[in-house]
Records
---
Amino acid sequence: MAGNVPPVADERDGLLRFLEQQRYVLKVAAHGLTDEQARSTPTNSALSVGGLVKHVATTEDGWLDIILKLPQKPFGDAMADYAAGYRLGEDETLEGVLARYDEVAARTAEVIAGIEDLGQPVPVPKGVPWYPQDVEAWSVRWVLLHLIEETARHAGHADIIREHVDGGTAIPLMAAVEGWPETAWVKPWQAAATPA
């Protein structure tokens, strides 16, 4: 059934497929938007659909760097980029951030495939206020669960923002993306006709 993760083979497959599903529904929330619409912040929040896609791509990529124990930016430098990480800049396109998100997803699949034990420790970065200072390490399993949680949270934000942008909601958008036939139950989303 559309909208659901298919049966999974094992824990690793399940974690990756649930993460993939949350990425997918976030991208569905962006379907059919112009760059201007993807930048818009139609609610009291400063969040936009394009900014959320950019943020989750950057966040997931950053977690891969942590898993691989790659050098991290000093926290102060990272904070300078924090707010911009939630915005689709004027020099950025929705198509570009979606393509980057696909690249990050491919990197995640490759990195996780190369890790034999999902219990492998992932050191907790120090000096970052939202990371616990009394925990030395998480596991790769924990990171994947966290990425599912983070992506799902922001997919929900994107659904609400999208509805404010043009009235598009999850099921009609998914029907449009997947080419479902119109039924009494669902009419696939269509872009509003532009005035002549």
Note: The mean pLDDT is 93.
---
Amino acid sequence: MRLAVYTGASLGADPRFARAAHDFAGELARQGVGIVYGGGHVGLMGVVADAALAAGGEVIGVMPRSLVDDETAHTGLTELRVVGSMHQRKAQMAELADGFVALPGGLGTLEEIFEAWTWIQVGVHAKPVGFLDVAGYWRPLLDAVASMSAAGLVRPQYRDAAVVAEDAGELLARFAAWQPPRRRWDPAGQRT
């Protein structure tokens, strides 16, 4: 099993983010879960890669050539796949992953995890999506999604498809039991 891990290229202001990223990645490695991530050596991304590698885990980085050329690529990974664009990066990560997890991060993390979450709704994949909620980091965002659902713009089954956990053990247990919701449109074109 491999998980795509999305997180920041910065460490953030709260030291709990780096500790949680370290502990999460180390636990994934100890449980034999590989990591696919953006390939960087900086910020929380670097913490994830270094912790998983130190625990003997598999870490595959996927990075556009432009970022490799900027010298942000991690040089000690199990494998670094160099692609042409950010779109190719996301597609390659999705292909390699059996699920998707967002740790604290910024706009790129949001964009990546929301795309993976949306893909459940439209039937692009049937893989679990989750948020590692470190120190309540994701709570305001998840509250906003709940508000969107209450307003009738996000169906409850898609809102509830995202797993929210505080540690790797809880997240992996919930991923193991996860069942995808029915996609929004069935093959005959009917709304569900």
Note: The mean pLDDT is 94.
---
Amino acid sequence: MRVHHRLQWRRDPDGTPYRARRSFPAGPANATVLLSGPGTVSVLDGTGRDDVLLDRLTATLVASGAQVLRCDMPVRDPGKPASADDERRRAERLGRLLAGNRHVMTGPLSLIGFSLGGQALLRLLETGEPPRADRVVLIGTVVEADAFLTSRVPLIELVYGSLDLVGYLADENDDKLPPAVFEPAMYADWSARHLIGTHSPAVRVHVLDGLGHTLHPCGPGPARDPLPALTSLVGAGL
């Protein structure tokens, strides 16, 4: 199926320009998906491996009849950990993206976020925007503190690669000590318990074998394509 795109230029309140894009099928869309990429992706026409996965996911969702909303994201310093300001700026753009397309939204609404993009979605849902999302899928998003969601969200899917290891300093006062490293088998359930809200969302955890952060193949053995598992999980809500 051919993917149609509509691109619009918009501005942040401080005047910073960015692009918003709606990808849609030839016929009427049967669902709406807001797609929020990881911190490595800042523009709609990037060429990195995360960009490739987002473009493939967009094409697959449109082929299933959904329309997909994406926008350029504020550029961040890749050499530094993501900050609360990074999350806030991304969440604000996502909120404006939803508001600007409210007149064309149809069918169930799904929100999909990768890593920092997932953190931005959680920040948005804490504010109650959108008032309801039918499905939220967070990929590689570790939730370290309680996220109290005021939006009505019946179901949240947490998705991790089995080789997505997370390290923490064993002693913040001694950076010479080796970090404590956790596998998804430990931090996934921990993240799930931090997702709470006014409407008590159901949370399910999925760990995909042979994949790393943002679902890139790694480790021994043949490379595994994450798209079939991801699209079947997302597509169940369309």
Note: The longest helix spans residues 84-100.
